[in-house]
Structure formats: structure tokens, C-alpha cells
Design goal:
The chain is mainly α. The chain has 22 helices and 5 strands.
Amino acid sequence: MWQQTYTPISNSLPLSALFAAIPIFTLLVLLGVLRKPAWMASLAGLAAAVVVAAGVYHMPLGVLAGSVTYGAAFGLFPIGWVVFSAILLYRVSLESGKFEILKDSIGHLTGDRRLQALLIAFAFGAFIEGAAGFGTPVAVAAAMLVGLGFEPFYAAGICLLANTAPVAFGSIGIPVATLAVTTGLPLDRLSAGVGRICAPVSLFVPAYLILVMSGWKGLRGVLPAAALCGAAFAVTQFLVSNFVGPQLTDLLASMAAMGALLLTIRRRGRTPSVHSGRQIALAWAPYLLLVTCVLLWGYKPLQIELSKFNILVNWPGLHNVVQRMPPVVARPAPYAAVYNFTWLSASGTACLIAAILASVVAGLSLTQFARVLRHTARQLAMAELTLAAVLGLAFLMNYSGATATLGLAFAATGAMFPFFSAMLGWLGVFLTGSDTSANALFGNLQVVTAHKLGQNPVLMAAANSAGGVMGKMISLTSIAVAACATSMKREDEARLFRFTLKHSIFLASVIGLVVMFYAYVMPGWAP
């Protein structure tokens, strides 16, 4: 069994952290400075991670190959599967001509682009995040905004910014549930902690979204709607996460936000529609089917039955071959690598069934549906390559010990650790593209460090998940999903990364300050 080491360079944590960060620097330089497309940056980052794993951490080549292929497989399924199915659903709506009617129905509610963005990118996207997660809300909402006439770059940017507030409770609360399993801390306290950190930020995210989109002048015009939307979401998020649990937090909070927006829109008055109620219902049918299928797939009894068809694979050359060492874990432990091929129970399968049913309802022929399938596959080819490369990079850094080195460097910040605890979660989601994965990766490290520093372990673990949500908008996984959903120009992917990076750092810092407030100013308010 190969043992991880976290200070491979002269037994120095700062020096080792510099080398461990080389793949991240590679991504940042290629995307942010050289403006290369995401697929090229991800492959270069993966190559850098291979060099670091082999040359610095002395990872055996067989284990290295297993890590990369394991990550690539996870990138293609379930994440890539969700993206493919969500875009297929959108293409079905487009091919059938129903999307034009859907656009009119939203325009009938409001012709104001700012309110359309809040309704679709924030509120409806949060609902899809709560039901499915794993890239689905960005794919669905961004495609809808482009169909409504939004410029692809801004549709992608708006959806990435909007997909922050709900991420910690996405996919029926899976990130918080994973955090509870990883850390051994009570689920209800972790849920409360994440809610108490996220709710203050959720309060102003809708207004922040409009500010970025339209400036101060544009925000003033819809400030009451943005404020009411944020208040409805944040208050519901706080109450449900603290007194009910993580599973329904996003679903109920997003419904409250949609209700608040529709109330505001109704007071503003509607524009006349040229389509009948039946035509509008059929136009919305693909997304109603999506919500229905995703909720059914999340229904526990059905989920249990569907999960019986999962195929578990102990990944060759990797499963229990790597040994994780203290202080990342309490005692030396084998690092499992079990690939769960959830071909029937995956959210992507629910989306696929919704797309098939939508094609039937829309009256598409088999030939038309086959054409949509081919078009979607061609459109997503480079995005799927990006997803495979990014997750291969992330898993290689995890199994080589490079990610743990970076985590320990954050943990060495002493009294500032509550702030950097959130930034550690941010880094984890930037690397993996998933709050769930970041919690599995750093959750236990947060608890171990909290005990050493005399901090509240529940607060620090919750900070990992809350801070992670702000890393979602800059992960290459999310960038690839948004770029594909909007058919964005390849050269705009690097521009999109630069656009979201500054907002991501700012919002993650706000989360860090909220955690500092709970840690030092009002510790009695922490869970």
C-alpha cells in the first residue's frame, strides 16, 4: 500500500504547497492570462498534475493512471450525463418550436430582462439545483435565457452567479449529508450551520445579480423585487435548514422566491399573450416533466428501488491501494475508490426520460429525435472532454496527496482559520466542481484542525460547505456546462472565467467574514 506524504519537499509545508499548487497555477494562467479555451487549459492542468504527482509525490505510475481514469469516469458519468440530458431536453423544446411559445409566456409575465433573469436563473435554477444539482440548473437556465434572447456570454455569467445560494443544499441536501458522513457530526447541526452562514449572503445575491447585470441604475428599477426575492429565499433557507433539515431547503426556498417574484410581477401588470393556455402548457411541458421526473427520482422509496440496479466497481489499481495519513485523517486509513455506475438512479437518467417524454408530447418523429440526439452529441463533445480532464486532475490531486497539502497550508493560518476555512471549501469546489466532493475531501480536515485550534468543529465543517458554493462559478466543470448550454464561442470561455473569478473571490470572502463573525463576535449564534 502506497502511503501519502503531505510535505514531500524538504519536509516543508510552504514549499510543498507551492509545488502542489502548480496545476492550479497552470489553469489560472491559461484561462485568466493566456485566454485559452477550457478544454486546452484542463488538459494542460492535468498534464501538470501528472508531473507533480510522479516527480514530487513519487506516486507509482499504476496508481497515478488509476486516479486519472477514475476521475475521468466520474466526470463523464454522472456529471457529463446530466449535462447531456439537460441540453437534449432544451434541444427537444427548440426543435419542436415550443420554446418560442415558452418565451412568449415569460414575456407575458414580464418583458423586463432583469426580472426574467431573477425568475429563471435564480429562482427556477435554485429549484432545479435542489432537485437535481450536478450542473443541471446552469445547463437548463442558461439555455432558457439564450432562447429568450440573452447574449450567450451574459446568460452564462448570470446563471453561474445565480447558482451560488442554493448549492450547499443541492440535490436533495446531498452535500450536507456527505459532510455528516465524512465528519461524523450530527446532520441537523451541520444543516443549521450551513443555513446560518449562507442565509445572510442569499439575502443580497438577487440584488447583486442585477447589479452585475445592469449596474446601480438598473438595480434601482427592480430593487423591491430583488429585495423581496432575496428575503423570501434567505428566510426560508434559514428556517428550513435549522428546523426541518437539508433535504427540502432548496426546494422550499426557491418556491418562496418564485412566489415573491410572481407577486411583484403581477403588481407591475402583464402584457397580452397571443397563445392559448393549452399552447402555453404544452410549451412548458418539457420542464414540467423535468421537475416531475427529478422529484420522483429523489423520492426515497423509488430511489432505493432504482439504486438496486447500480453497478459498483472497485477501481482497478486504485481502490484501497493508497493510504491516507494523519493529520488529514485521525489514523492511517485506506483510501477507497469505488465507482458507482448509477445508470438508472442518476439525475441525468431522470432528465433523459423527461426529454424522451417531452419529444412524444411535442410530436417529434423518431427521425427528428435522432437528429436532436446527434446535434447534442456534437455540441457537447469538447465539453465532455473538459469534464473528464478536470475531474481526472482533481482526483489525481486527491489521491496523490497534493490537495491535502494545500488544505494543511490553509489550516496553518491559526487565528485566521475561520476565514480560511471557508476559502478551503472554495478551493475544493474550484478543483472538483462539486460541493459534495469538496465536503468529502476537506470535511474531516476541517474538524481535525478545529479541535487543534480550539474552534467549533460544526462551524468549521459548515464553513467548508458554505464557502464551497462560491467556488462553483469558477470551476472548469461549471464553465464547460455554461459554455455548452449557450453555444458560446470557444474564445469566450476564458473571458467567462475572468468575469466570474472576481465575483467568486469577493463572495467567498464575504462567507469567510460571516464565519469569523460567528467564531469570534457571536459564538453563541453558531450551531
